[in-house]
Design brief:
8 helices, 2 strands, elongated
Length: 209
Amino acid sequence: MARNEEKAQSLLNRWTSMKQDFADTFKNRRPYLASQCDNLKDAERWRRQIIREISKKVADIQNAGSSEHVIRDLNDEINKRIREKRHWERRIVQLGGPDYARTQPQAYDADGSAVRGVGGYKYFGAAKDLPGVRELFQKEEHEPRKRTRQDMYKHIEPDYYGFRDDEDEQQLKDEEEAEHRLKQRAMDGWNAAEAKRKAQVAELGVPTD
């Protein structure tokens, strides 16, 4: 009887241990969605974990001797982790934590060069030398940058809008003289037309006032 009780107790202990291990596994597993986390401390921990994963993969992708397939997969994983990090940073703000997106510096590669990308997708390490990627960056360097509205307005001074016209005395004098000439020309034209009209009326023998 004692033997059976010992076996039962042993099985119960093993089951309890397995149950605890199973619970710990899920407890220490990062949630699939950041919105599933309601604890700021845990959200900070998951963000740090993602940063460590990104750092490791960035170090791994520096090996130019890896196959193209491996490099592309690593680069995809890094971009995926970066997007995931942003989700957690937004969640941290929602939970009352700091806004890391505002304070984090520009991303740099392991060799110290600024990370370049296209359309939000970044290329790290050996991925920058993959077929098609280097040509893409070279094309961007040679293509002239289109002027933006900000560029067009950057060098426009107040004179363009006439804001300082009143400050130019010579210009004011020239404008007054031009206005006087126009008025005089209009008066001369009117007087000539009036004289011609009166002459025509006189020829017809019509009395004028």
